[in-house]
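Task 17 of the worksheet. Students: predict the tertiary structure of the chain below and write it out as structure tokens. Keep your answer in the requested format; marks are given for formatting as well as content.
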Amino acid sequence: MIDKRILPLAVGGLGIGTTEFTIMGLLPDIANALHISIPEAGHFISAYALGVVVGAPLLVGYSVKFPPKKVLLWLMVLFTIFNGLSAIAPNYITMMFARFLSGLPHGAFFGVSTVVATRLAQKGKEARFISFVFSGLTLANLAMVPLVTYIGQTFHWSWYFVIVALIGIITMLLIYRYLPEIKNKENTQFAEELQFLKNPQSWYVLLITAIGFGGLFTWLSYISPLMTNISNISESNVAYVMILAGGGMVIGNLLGGYLTDKIGVGKASIFLLFAMMLSLLCVFFLSENTTISLLLTFLCGGLSMSLAAPVNIMMLKAAPNAEMMSAAFMQAAFNVANATGAYLGGIPLTFGFSYAYPSLVGVGMTLTGLLICIIYVLKYKPTQVVLIKK
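Model answer:
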């Protein structure tokens, strides 16, 4: 059972996961409504990710002096307002702008939440507490994303953003009620928080995240047309496909945290990246078989979240004096992966290749991330999770 102190963070992750991933199942609907192509609609994914990249360091940098509870409350206020604006976007340009604004609080929320989780956790259970924070993100893919996808396809895609805004309001209430007050670093300056970027170890972790995760986003960004055009699944069943992917994410997230606590961040990261690469290769070659494609959907969903715990622990170990800023940069890196995966995965489609080809691009990205991870492990030899509580 999730510690009730972590519950507000998990619910916030539920809202963030719903807004980030539901759009992938509604790309055809949004594209038709705004009179644009599906690859152009894919730019909304990249716009949101760009908002995360910009917002994560800036919002954390200017909020490090304030108590984490207050910071998280205000981040949810911004999240709720900007998703509400997305519901009324009438055209491509307006939606691009709204999605960018919606992404601004995302990275900062998870960055602050990650640090809060490690401070609330018992020694040796930090990775599991981080996985609890991300459990909301995974549950979004299991339950909310398919539900909201169904609602958006049945009624109107704008209901998707209305529901997200409601989750944002609920999260604010839960933060106020259950999240304890945690001391902040009152004397910390923005420039001091950025000092961790001088450490090469930090850049290795950011590159592993930005490139390695990008491989899976080439698959996830175009999962709806992949399943309908290649795997011969009807559009009405896409919501069930998203449930399958979400189920994999829930299990993968928890197993990733457990595996990291048991064998350490280095071994866990290498194993999981290698498994990602193989799964994406299988998607490219085997997606025409409906049964195998559904199994791969569950597997890829699990692997997409299994790395969250080990790579976040990697970064916290590399930047112990800039926890919130480094965690925020990790969220920026995740969404660089999101943006580049969606963009690079769409390139073969613009040349007329099938919807199986984005996953082949993903194989190359994941292989690159794996090689960087191997170099990192050989150079820095990360072992078990050992974090200093403050």
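Marker's comment: The two ends are 25 Å apart (CA to CA). The chain has a mean pLDDT of 84.
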